[in-house]
Design a protein that fits this description.
The complex is a heterodimer of chains A (326) and B (419). Chain A has 326 residues and is mainly beta. Chain A has 3 helices and 24 strands. The longest helix of chain A has 26 residues. In chain B, strand 15 and strand 16 form a beta hairpin. Classes of the chains: A mainly beta (326), B alpha+beta (419).
Chain lengths: 326, 419
Amino acid sequence: MNIQTLLNIILIIFIVVAGYFGYYFLHKSAPDFVSAAAPVNVSVPPHFLFNFGDRPNQPGSLNKPLAVDVDDRGNVYVADTGNSEIKVFNSGGKFLYKLGKGGKAPALQGSAGIAVWQDRVYVTDGNNFRVLEYSTGGNFVKTFVDKNLGKKVGAFVPVGVAVGQKGDVYISDVFYQRVLVFDQDGKFKFQFGSPGSTPGKFQYANDLTVDKNGNVYVSDSNNSRVEVFDPKGKFLYMLGTSGGAKADMALPRGIDTDKNGRIFVVDTFQHKVQVFDGKDRGKLLYTFGEKGTDNGQFDYPNGMAVKGNRFFVTDRENNRISVFSY
Amino acid sequence: MRKILIGTLFGVLLVIVLSAPAFAALPTRVQVNVNDPSPPNASVTFQFSAAPTAGTGSGFSLEYTGDGGAAWIAATPDAGNIAPNYKFTATMVDFKLYYVRIKDNLADGYKYVDVMPPNNHGHANFSDNTDMCKGCHITHNATQAKLLKGTDTKSLCYTCHSTNTTTGSRYDVQQGRVLLGNATLDPATLKYTVTTATWGKTLGGPFGTEATPRLPDQNLWGVGTTVTSRHDIEGTVSLIPGSTKGTPTVGSLNGSYAGNTMTCISCHNGHDNDGNYRILKSKVWSTDTAVTVKAFPKTGAAGETANYVAGFSVYCALCHDKFDVIAGSGRGTQSVYRHAVDVPLTNYYYTGGTLTTSLPLETGDPGYASPQVTCISCHYAHGTVVTGTNPTYEPNGTNNSTMLKRLPNMQVCEDCHKK
């Protein structure tokens, strides 16, 4: 064995080792909270952990953030709506990068919805009547749905976005007040809902989420309620003032569910998060947050993401993300 | 015998009362239901209860316009139209703004309602849908008086009507834009389909962001990204330009809010009780005489346009009363000369013939012989992005401002007085 061969072997070993550790770093080193589950029988709210994004004039400064989601590594994707950017932070709130690296991504004009699924990031760009797809690495992939869809189903203005277990993408539309459903290639599948206030209808549907059973929870904002549908869009029941579960709900917007089936609803007008038991058709369990600027308080919160036993809320007027945990 | 006489007299009086012609009674509340809101068109019903003036050909008619009042289309009453309950149905194009007028056929005057299918009007005509109350009020957990949500008026209104939150309304007054739909006609089926959504300019102009009045880089106004002057909502009013009214105090204004703070409800009534254009209040100050402000907006390719009919200068003068000079540009009883409003375009200070303008004029109700100049001929109501400031009349003639003008510098002068 000559020296050249030996060096090549060492190089290969080095690459393999580096690759292994790189993979481990990226995929196996997710913080504990990602895989942790909140206690099942909890009747008290989570405690405040920390805020981020509210230091002015920093690369990670936020301006009127509306939406948030978290990937499997614990990285946090924030719709920094006032700056028309999607910013990515690590699980500790350190700014990492903006989506759309490389300068080829189309410019956003605000954004009110964001959903991470596997290595994909879906972003609603309602002011431009489209939904964009990025990679979790930050690169722009494609325009997932563009306004030409309107020729088939009528014009639409996407706001909220969520992904089901099989990759189907659910998008709320505040133009015709409905939910549009696409497969993971962006092919339109079906729609449900229409303008109105009777069960199954919407007045400015906002955020939405899909639970592990495929049921779809839609914040029907201007009707002050959350509506629940089966995976095919059949209306099941409601949460809220006029819903099946009584709750003084004012303006529900951000919504997510946890592994135990609990439903977390951000009530923008009441500056708090309301938590319902999904197993009992929406029994109100507890709330957390109140109006203010201190830690654990909100000023017009809007978006919500649950990852493991950690809870992320976009605190719009405080220009920050507030993080809670058990 | 006495009881018989009294009974007979009472019966005669009752017959007289019941058979007497009723006073003209336009409906106070009209229920507007969008029955079929799915594209391409919407079926809209209008229901009301009212007693028309008695006489030959009595009853109500209902007409609607989608072109700013240039043409009024008569709606056919439903078969079940039985007094005093009336019902009309019209087929309307989604995302087109319509004005509807209801007339007692034997009396003067109209009742107006507006509708833009497929959504309900969030501020009016909600008697058919009491769930709309929840949009602004909450029964047991309110943060403002009158069971209102939010912490102040602007934050309540802006939760649906600002740039970052237009997820709750078509109107973004912060950026001065409205969501429109472009409908195309299928010649085979003669049905419309709304295939694209677009943003168009609002009629009032933009307010901009709160602290520094800016607009996003992408905006419809084009001239720049800064709002150069505006009615400063949630700003403290210390001096109203051109006003003899003084500083507002609690109780001096028509509404239950902090007296010296200008806010959305200084001019607008969230319940549309006054029936004015754009839910404008009929009184700004408690002592005002009620003002009728009438206009018929319509959806256009680039936004909304309006046929301004009547009442605008009078309305602005509820605060800016010194500027309400209605003859020539004479000084009248005031110590300074001012440009007149509510005057027709004639050849004042122009020797080239009759004045012409691209600026909006008021058409009159009943129609003026010639359209007239009004405050909003030169000024936006909310804000402007134009540049080119001039010294303001008040407080001391040294503050420079664009004063909500529609055109840069003094181009609003040149637009009529072409020199």
